[in-house]
Design brief:
The structure is a homodimer. In chain A, 40% of the residues lie in helices and 18% in strands. In chain A, strand 2 and strand 3 form a beta hairpin. The two termini of chain A are 34 Å apart. Strand 8 of chain A pairs antiparallel with strand 8 of chain B, so a sheet runs across the interface.
């Protein structure tokens, strides 16, 4: 074992973080984050690649996700399927996910199996051995996945159409899973192009959390990952950025399978950026204030309790993105209320909010909720590991991630209103109407047997859970 | 001079074409089209490259057009600006244009100056010598062009936003001139990337029209262009194609500079495809029937003469595209009629047309107009040269181009209705509203001093005239 580069090894502990977080960087550029939590003899092992669907070349949408699937095929040391079988045989569980900005692989195992996980994960970082049959069979799998997750779900289809209209230029407008016609044409060259370019230690973040010792983890990482050469041709992540958005857009999706009409308005919004997370923090408050689960949210109060407009409403914001994020508001009208009427009521409620400002008591309640949530988050070592992985993969530093709870606590009413005025500009939004076609709606005028379900509060959540 | 490859030299004359058209292909792959017209001692010399803004890599929108500008800079034989100066000194005129699918350079000169044109055009196909100063100064020129042609024109801004919403995946959604923030970053590498990849004889079409002899033109082409080596790495033109469009979109653009509100609905439509031009021909009829300049068009009749809804209306279709084309309808409401009301009236008129079908007398009038237009077109040798250049650059064959007048004459009422039912599907459309903001509109309630102008009949015309 080589000596660790001592200067690169640092123990960082922000005031609100109970767990000790240790970071290092291997000589080949791989970042290492170790989060100690000795309450249970378990370890979470994750490798995050700084590449996702928004890094794909044109015309091959879905290739990042396709490759994620193929990473469970054979390597020079493992048979196809052996990876997951070994994890299971060792009492662990494993999974992987792809998003716009990253692709991640993770296992949860007994802490003494960490070395085995690293050995296998390092193997498939560099030594994947795909066959033409792998491509053919797994392509069918991802097409099935698209059929079941998107094409069978009117809300997913509508969401896909909405994002394509929201982003004028950025590849965030293309679905992570891919457009079917492009997925059907994905071939070995497309897959290896992504693998050879982006799957390298200098583009990867190792996150290990649980009952582990940082020095030992870093030594183990040196042994397994440190021997993989850096990719000298690793490209910069330069994506097409949005031009000024100057025209409000609307998308109308009709599908006979829609039992309950609803509308979503999605705005382009700033993401958490390195050293600049204040507006993102304020937008999280704004989402809670407008459409949080509390009965005191602006939309619930105005559209459900003070007027019989909506069955449900919500607002959502996720600031974890390398480029732009989105802020969404959704309303599910009561039977007999049209989407147009619901939209007008939603706009009136937002306009009133912009004029009247934040209710100080509501703001403090939310601040307290966030403080509690951040405290509880420290107990969830896997969630914490996800935070570091997703944060680092979207351009934040460890310091940014650790500063977040404090930044969240420091948000003022003025910050919220400034963020609201900045983001709630219809010109940089899409309004989506989802309903059954008129004929189908007439058929469905009888009370629905199943209860109406309001759309998720975060209408723009990414494919993968975080 | 080498012997011409006799098998590749063919004289093609379709029945309706009075001019003799001769085609050949040089050994290096360059296509040659010669159109004889001996009525005046003039020649038009054009080189068309099969590359346009839709072939650009992501993030460098505008580079195809930028390169077009830079082709007037120095080569190893010519000083910067010398090209156009020499053309002018020889009594000619020259120009160039960039579109989604092609970039073209043309000169009109006395026929005995053709050799000089070829010498200079061949020189800049291969021997451009750009300096960093060229990049800096010409970038300012294209930014100024964007400022004057797009940013100073509310209708152009709106059109740009509309196209970005119309195309979900295809690069046709990006403006030919480029997004400003990407234009500002265009550099020498971006420009040379396009030049080295696409500006090659095997990606070029030479069109010479006028008082010339085909054998002599082809010999001259061999001498000047035939010596340039083919680009072995010329890529296929594979672009991102559209997924199924399943949700109607709307774009609302408000700008205080808009004196007269109007609306445009733009649909994705089939283009003229090799061997399959019938639907495109039918769509040209449909555009005339719905919104042609005649007072008998459906929209003029229903919205202007039978009801006081519109000041003007129009419909447009241009089928010359490598991938999808667009079909557009526009309505300019009378003062006092809202855009919503005008849209409802437009939809009612189109619905009525779809139910009632084509008026046979109107169809025959349009057929006669097209026959006349096609006959007159033969007199315009420059227009004819454009047809061949644009047609070949968008994937048509010479035979397709020559078959077009007959295909156009053979369109039936059933063809028109089938095309209408195929294309006029709101789910694959964007509806654009352009108006001044409400406050500005109130200010403008006084009768406008200048006469209201209806938007162009072809709302989706490309940047360059053809």
């Amino acid at each position: 074992m080589r000596r660790l580069p001592a200067l690169l090894l640092a123990v960082l502990a922000a005031p609100a973080v109970a767990q000790e977080v240790t970071t290092a960087r291997l000589d080949n550029g791989m970042e290492v984050v170790v989060i100690e939590d000795h309450r249970a003899p378990v370890a979470v092992h994750m490798v995050w690649y700084r590449t996702g669907s928004a890094d794909e070349p044109p015309g091959v949408s879905g290739v990042a996700h396709f490759l994620e699937h193929l990473l469970f095929k054979a390597t020079d040391d493992l048979e196809s399927g052996e990876f997951s079988r070994v994890v299971a045989e060792n009492g662990g569980s494993d999974n992987a996910f792809t998003s716009y900005d990253y692709t991640a692989y993770h296992q949860r195992v007994a802490a003494d199996r960490l070395d085995l996980m690293m050995e296998m994960e390092a193997d498939r970082m560099n030594d994947l051995r795909l066959t033409p049959e792998d491509i053919e069979t797994e392509r069918q799998v991802i097409l099935e996945e698209r059929a079941s997750r998107v094409e069978s779900e009117p809300g997913s289809i509508a969401q896909e159409q909405m994002r394509a209209a929201l982003f004028l230029n950025h590849r965030y407008g293309q679905p992570v899973i891919g457009w079917r016609h492009e997925m059907e044409a994905l071939d070995m060259d497309d897959v290896l192009g992504t693998y050879d370019l982006w799957y390298s230690p200098n583009n990867a973040i190792l996150v290990v959390a649980g009952d582990v010792e940082p020095e030992a983890v870093i030594a183990m990482a040196e042994e397994h990952y440190g021997v993989i050469p850096a990719e000298p041709g690793l490209p910069e992540r330069v994506r097409q950025q949005e031009p000024p958005q100057v025209a409000a857009r609307r998308v109308v999706y009709e599908d006979p399978r829609v039992a309950q009409p609803y509308l979503v308005r999605s705005y382009i919004a700033p993401a958490r950026d390195p050293g600049e997370q204040q507006e993102a923090a304020a937008l999280l408050y704004l989402a809670e204030i407008l459409g949080g689960s509390s009965f005191t949210s602006v939309l619930a109060r105005e559209l459900t309790f003070e007027a019989p407009v909506a069955l449900g409403s919500g607002a959502g914001y996720s600031g974890t993105a390398l480029d732009d994020a989105t802020f969404g508001i959704s309303v599910t009208p009561r039977p007999g209320v049209s989407l147009e009427e619901a939209e007008a009521a939603m706009e009136a409620a937002v306009t009133e909010f912009l004029a009247e400002g934040v209710d100080p008591a509501q703001l403090e309640r939310i601040r307290t909720q966030f403080r509690a949530a951040e405290t509880y988050a420290l107990d969830n070592v896997e969630g914490l590991a996800n935070r570091y992985g997703a944060g680092l993969a979207t351009g934040l530093s460890v310091e940014d991630i650790q500063a977040w709870p404090e930044i969240l606590q420091a948000v003022t009413a003025e910050d919220v209103m400034a963020a609201a005025r900045d983001v709630l500009d219809e010109r940089s939004s899409v309004t989506l109407f989802v309903s059954a076609p008129a004929e189908a709606a007439a058929d469905a005028a009888e009370p629905a047997a199943e209860p109406a379900v309001a759309p998720a509060a975060a209408p723009d959540a990414e494919e993968a859970s975080q």
